[in-house]
């Protein structure tokens, strides 16, 4: 697979490329988009073929997920993550964010606090705030070369003070790229058990690991916690299928699962997009070798950019990561506020990064760059950043 190939994404309805002015203002169309987390590569050829085949069939009546969908997901989880997934756990929803929103409605009441660890993915704030809940931030702590750590003492204080019913965890963590260790997750779950908190673990980035890193799901932990964990997964981030819209919420607890299924039914969400199902199945069945190539390319993109930044961008402090294709850069040494930082990135560097302030107060003074692009884009971004 040639990940160096430049493919024009204009006029495809791409949020990242075609709708950049909506977010960055008039004139932003000329900027290099390094924001939205999708990548600028085509999906695996096996997925394209599967889609062609399904399109050629020509009938798109109401569809369910066939057995092959579940078999592929279960085999993928076992092979990639040594994770046992039971078919009955799988509740499929159009996307991780819509599923999170439905779960927030189901598992909390208006006015309740819901915990996230900041800096946090902006859509977590949306599903909490726009559903009339309160976002309770448990800020992560930065520990030099070790990167970000959970602050479990502060978390317990928050649990005690606010008695939240729910926490949304992000693992691997967007934007920092941290994969939480088994020990950290065990300590977290012990606290959640003590304070009766349910954990929804957004694991959409689980397949996108750096070399020699492993991913621990909340479902790898002891079964005694299965009554309070829900894991969200998808083939979308891994294989570049975000607009096809299908994700899975893995819910081991039968009562939680039944309640969620009823909620999906109540919204008419019990019918599935035939193309999404076809694409995800093919990706899990046959996309492994393609993903290995992609991961090698992404790792090299990161290595190269970090090396260049160390040589040419003295103000940039890059966060160590274990996963994702996101680069979380501390720009505090530039001594700019977030408006000025955005202006400098656009008008001097010519790039449109995700601004750190969109990830809550802990993101102020940071930018997030998307490394999921051909190397030449990174070269162009670096040239721009050198002008700062
Ligand atoms: C942590 C996280 N969760 C969810 C999503 C989006 O999920 P979906 O498109 O399935 O709603 C993203 C996309 O960037 C993400 O980073």
TrEMBL record:
<comment type="similarity">
    <text>Belongs to the class-II pyridoxal-phosphate-dependent aminotransferase family. MalY/PatB cystathionine beta-lyase subfamily.</text>
</comment>
<keyword id="KW-0456">Lyase</keyword>
<feature type="domain" description="Aminotransferase class I/classII large">
    <location>
        <begin position="37"/>
        <end position="384"/>
    </location>
</feature>
<dbReference type="InterPro" id="IPR004839">
    <property type="entry name" value="Aminotransferase_I/II_large"/>
</dbReference>
<dbReference type="InterPro" id="IPR015424">
    <property type="entry name" value="PyrdxlP-dep_Trfase"/>
</dbReference>
<protein>
    <recommendedName>
        <fullName>cysteine-S-conjugate beta-lyase</fullName>
        <ecNumber>4.4.1.13</ecNumber>
    </recommendedName>
</protein>
<dbReference type="InterPro" id="IPR015421">
    <property type="entry name" value="PyrdxlP-dep_Trfase_major"/>
</dbReference>
<dbReference type="InterPro" id="IPR027619">
    <property type="entry name" value="C-S_lyase_PatB-like"/>
</dbReference>
<dbReference type="Pfam" id="PF00155">
    <property type="entry name" value="Aminotran_1_2"/>
</dbReference>
<keyword id="KW-0663">Pyridoxal phosphate</keyword>
<dbReference type="InterPro" id="IPR051798">
    <property type="entry name" value="Class-II_PLP-Dep_Aminotrans"/>
</dbReference>
<dbReference type="InterPro" id="IPR015422">
    <property type="entry name" value="PyrdxlP-dep_Trfase_small"/>
</dbReference>
């Amino acid at each position: 697979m040639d990940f160096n190939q430049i493919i024009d994404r204009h006029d495809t309805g791409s949020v990242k490329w075609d709708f950049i002015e909506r977010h960055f203002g008039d004139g932003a169309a000329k900027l290099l988009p390094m924001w939205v987390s999708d990548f600028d590569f085509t999906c695996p050829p096996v997925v394209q073929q599967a889609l062609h085949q399904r399109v050629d069939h020509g009938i798109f009546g109401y569809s369910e997920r066939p057995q092959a969908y579940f078999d592929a997901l279960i085999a993928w989880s076992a092979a990639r993550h040594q994770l046992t997934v039971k078919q009955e756990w799988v509740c499929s929803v159009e996307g991780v964010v819509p599923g999170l929103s439905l779960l927030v409605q189901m598992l909390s009441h208006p006015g309740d606090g819901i915990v996230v660890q900041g800096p946090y993915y902006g859509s977590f704030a949306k599903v909490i705030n726009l559903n009339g809940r309160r976002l309770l931030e448990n800020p992560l702590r930065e520990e030099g070369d070790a990167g970000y750590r959970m602050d479990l003492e502060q978390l317990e204080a928050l649990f005690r003070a606010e008695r939240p019913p729910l926490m949304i965890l992000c693992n691997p963590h967007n934007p920092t790229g941290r994969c939480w260790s088994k020990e950290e997750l065990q300590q977290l779950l012990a606290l959640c058990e003590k304070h009766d908190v349910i954990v929804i673990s957004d694991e959409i980035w689980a397949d996108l690991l750096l070399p020699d890193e492993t991913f621990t799901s909340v479902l790898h932990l002891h079964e005694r916690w299965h009554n309070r964990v829900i894991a969200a997964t998808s083939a979308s981030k891994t294989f570049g299928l975000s607009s096809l819209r299908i994700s899975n919420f893995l819910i081991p607890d039968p009562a939680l699962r039944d309640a969620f299924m009823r909620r999906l039914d109540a919204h008419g969400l019990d019918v599935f997009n035939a193309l999404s199902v076809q694409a995800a199945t093919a990706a899990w069945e046959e996309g492994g070798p393609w993903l290995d190539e992609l991961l090698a390319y992404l790792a090299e993109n990161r290595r190269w950019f970090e090396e260049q930044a160390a040589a040419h961008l003295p103000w940039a402090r890059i966060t160590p990561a274990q996963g994702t294709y996101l680069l979380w850069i501390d720009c505090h040494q530039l001594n700019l506020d977030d408006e000025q930082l955005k202006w400098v990135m656009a008008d001097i560097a010519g790039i449109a990064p995700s601004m750190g302030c969109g990830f809550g107060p802990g993101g102020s003074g940071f930018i997030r760059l998307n490394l999921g692009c051909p190397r030449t884009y990174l070269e162009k971004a670096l040239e721009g950043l050198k002008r700062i």
